[in-house]
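Tokens as discussed.
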């Protein structure tokens, strides 16, 4: 899904879909662009007969987690040390799922 304010990348694998990335231009954050992209990706997955959409998000990214929760995603697990940060430290991933 793409636009001039934000974009998302999603893949469908059988009954499942996965959001690989979501980005919004800094000047357009907190204006509903991310919400619209997530909704478009969920609709696209649903049209392809997916029964769930999964994603991983950094544990420290509260804004993204809030966006996904408002879209109906639920936390289902965590992946310890999934993301590498600058300086070599690691951060857990929060795994979320939206079920249709």
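Sequence:
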């Amino acid at each position: 899904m793409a636009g001039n304010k934000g974009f998302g990348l999603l893949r469908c694998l059988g009954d499942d879909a996965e959001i690989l990335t979501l980005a919004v231009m800094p000047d357009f954050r907190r204006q509903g662009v991310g919400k619209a992209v997530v909704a478009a990706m969920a609709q696209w997955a649903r049209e392809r007969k997916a029964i769930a959409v999964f994603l991983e998000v950094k544990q420290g990214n509260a804004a993204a987690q809030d966006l996904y929760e408002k879209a109906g995603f639920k936390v289902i697990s965590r992946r310890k040390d999934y993301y590498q940060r600058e300086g070599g430290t690691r951060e857990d991933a929060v795994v979320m799922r939206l079920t249709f």
